[in-house]
Amino acid sequence: MTLAAGTPRLPAPTLVVGGYGYRNAGDEAMLSGLLDLLGRETTTVVSRSPAETTAGHRVDSVSIAGAAAAMVRHRSLVIGGGGLFGRDMGALGRLLPIAGILAAIAGREVALVGIGVDADISRTSRWLLARLASRSRWVIVRDAASRQILAELGVDSTIEPDLSARVASAGRAAGDRLLRSVNLDPSRRPVVGLCLTAVNPTLVDRARRAIIATVDARPDLDFCLIPMSRHPFVATHNDEILARDIAAERERIRILIPPDDPSLSLGVFEALSAAVCMRYHSLLFAHRAGIPIVGVAYAEKCLHWLADRGLEPVEPTSEAILRELDSVTLRAAA
Prior knowledge:
This protein has 2 domains: about 15-165, 3-Layer(aba) Sandwich (Rossmann fold); about 170-334, Glycogen Phosphorylase B (Rossmann fold), CATH 3.40.50.2000. α5 (about 95-105) packs parallel to α6 (about 125-135), α8 packs across α11 (about 260-270) and α9 (about 205-215) packs across α14 (about 320-334). It contains 14 helices and 12 strands. The strands form 2 sheets. The protein has a 7-stranded parallel beta sheet with strand order 3-2-1-4-5-6-7, with helices on both faces. Strands 10-9-8-11-12 form a 5-stranded parallel beta sheet, sandwiched between helices. α10 (about 240-250) links the parallel β9 (about 220-225) and β10. The model is unreliable at about 330-334 (pLDDT under 50). It is an alpha/beta fold. The protein has helices spanning about 25-40, 50-55, 65-70, 90-95, 95-105, 125-135, 145-150, 170-180, 205-215, 240-250, 260-270, 280-290, 300-310, 320-334; strands spanning about 15, 45, 60-65, 75-85, 110-115, 140, 160, 190-195, 220-225, 255, 275, 295.
């Protein structure tokens, strides 16, 4: 993401609000990109875990409880990035439009940066989002569907790549080392990444069964579960729980916890031969790495991303996943 020439800058200091400090690899990559855009020296981040955010991103951070007091000391507010205006957001996330509107009324400059918007949010949420966006200096979205939804609300916006695109990869060699740390050797045989989540209850059991059957059907491949989100208190958003349940059923499946440094996570995807992607940022990371993607969409934002690239979502069945992997193998051998 780059700001067009002549785009007015936000007055410093700036307070950033998003889904930060929840141990989500995609969110932390977006925060790295956002800090690169705004600058760390004059930015404070609202985080569930301020100590972790400060240590990981070298930036001042405050708790959610301290956000209102922090706003008094800051001249601008950035809300972003990611799917902050979608149905999977919790109660605190649904309060974001109100917080932004109040900040604007109090004379703060407000910007929406790198956001995604779902079509199926409530009527109240749509109304609040429209009011917030109309008061915002920047409204920057990350996909065409979000732009269309906002246009239907009478809001102009611009499309820019996801904020994580500003993060450079540590490279394939770094990814190779991390895979070897869990006893996988990409030079010996292909490794398929598995980025699964239990957020969507209609998909999780089907996905679990499909992955077990896929692993059994392809003894020529290695498989590595990569839990992109490890939410500290919402079990369905803690992908590590699902990963350990699946790995307990098949010992040859390995688990690699994404490093805190998003550049290393990008390197891991470069070391993979393909990835089964449910999580949004696993789609992005795999695409950046140039590896084949088996996209099992768990949320509307994933469908938006696939549609922007002319890709169809894959059903969470072993037949569908194996068909995709078979076609990948044939293309790679050609």
